[in-house]
Specification:
334 residues, TIM Barrel, 8-stranded parallel beta sheet, two-stranded antiparallel sheet, 10 strands, binds NADP nicotinamide-adenine-dinucleotide phosphate
Length: 334
């Protein structure tokens, strides 16, 4: 197998001084890949030179990934300290964060996590593989005092040494303002959807100004996302003429251009693949051949504000549409 020296992979410094590798392997198999396949990909990725893995309890594969991690430790490929492992508390466990974190640790067979995120700022549960129109009767809008109770449990994980860093995911500017006002330990990252056709410049800028690093998910435009998340209006980053032209110049796949752009812009990127060649191209891509200044400018012009992971399944009864999850007018939608 072709490998990349992991020391060539840049890191970003978080507000507390921790160093996170700028590329990690995503592990959400959607409806396309089973847990064993993803666990095999995690092992391959680490052998190849990846040092950052983006996990979550809801992805349903932490047990299998835990076995893969045991393998790489036993085979002497890496030590625990050389890896960055993220997990996330799922929406139905906002009141049981400590128990949920301990379950992830047990499944992953780890003593600590490098990063633990609140996956969504809503406690709204949806059944796996549910239909896009499904609305749970007990779903609610964002309730700040409840989120801060969840956040206090996140803070206790740091205090108890189970987790080294905590962060948010899918949090908008008005929600983050309140979280920053009321937290004791500040989030070090916000994980959010970003790709060339969905650049979120205002949200990205706000996070950076406030010392919060951005982990961009679905960086390639999530071609394998669940069918329930696809609409006719969705655009395809990898087919954009600007992306394709840069890919031709650099002789790489358009997917790799999306990742180069992400890292050069200042994001941490977590592309998913279980295919060895794609995983390799992605890792290699961020260690060589930057985009020119002009190309970076060109990519900044192709934002289509095309959100792919709309989150319809988290809507509450009174919500008008998925836009309500994202506070588009700058205020928290209730
Ligand atoms: N915090 C959150 O709420 C949240 C939400 C969504 C995702 N995430 C995280 O972000 C990760 C990545 O997002 P994602 O999985 O939605 O989408 P993505 O990384 O944008 O896209 C993954 C797809 O791109 C293809 N691909 C990857 N590298 C490629 C290459 N070099 N050439 C051609 N095709 C390539 C893969 O193909 P193959 O299928 O052929 O491998 C896969 O289907 C997830 O796995 C998850 O860890 C977090």
């Amino acid at each position: 197998m072709q490998t990349i020296d992991s020391k060539k992979v840049p890191t970003k410094t978080l507000s507390n001084g921790a160093q996170i590798p700028v590329i990690g392997l995503g592990t959400f198999g959607s409806d396309n890949y089973d847990a064993a396949t993803i666990a095999r990909a995690v092992k391959t990725a680490i052998q190849m030179g990846y040092r950052h893995i983006d996990c979550a309890s809801v992805y349903g594969n932490e047990k299998e990934i835990g076995m893969a991690l045991q393998d790489v430790f036993a085979e002497g490929i890496v030590t625990r300290e050389e890896l960055w492992i993220t997990s996330k508390v799922w929406n139905d466990k906002h009141k049981e964060v400590v128990a949920s974190c301990k379950q992830s640790l047990a499944d992953l067979q780890l003593d600590y996590l490098d990063l633990y995120l609140v996956h969504w700022p809503f406690p709204n549960f949806h059944a796996p593989k549910c239909d896009v129109t499904a609305r749970q009767p007990d779903s609610v809008p964002y309730i700040h005092k409840d989120y801060m109770k969840t956040w206090a449990q996140m803070e206790s994980l740091v205090e108890n040494g189970l987790v080294k860093n905590i962060g948010t995911s899918n949090v908008t500017i008005p929600k983050m303002k309140l979280i920053l006002r009321d937290c004791t330990i500040r989030p070090v990252v916000n994980e959010m959807e970003i790709h060339p056709h969905f650049q979120q410049p205002e949200l990205f800028g706000f996070m950076i100004e406030n010392g919060i690093q951005v982990i961009g998910y679905s960086p390639i435009g999530s071609p394998g996302r669940p069918e329930r998340d696809k609409t006719l209006e969705d655009t395809v980053d990898m087919e954009d003429p600007i992306i394709v032209a840069i890919a031709e110049r650099l002789n790489v796949h358009p997917a790799v251009v999306c990742l180069k752009w992400a890292v050069q812009r200042g994001q941490i990127t977590i592309p998913f693949s279980v295919k060895t060649d794609k995983m390799y191209n992605n890792l290699k891509g961020i260690t060589e051949g930057p985009l020119t200044e002009l190309e970076m400018e060109e990519v900044s012009t192709i934002d289509k504000q095309c959100r792919l992971i709309k989150g319809q399944v988290f809507l509450w009864e009174a919500a008008k549409g998925w836009e309500d999850l994202w506070d588009l007018n700058g205020e928290i939608t209730l």
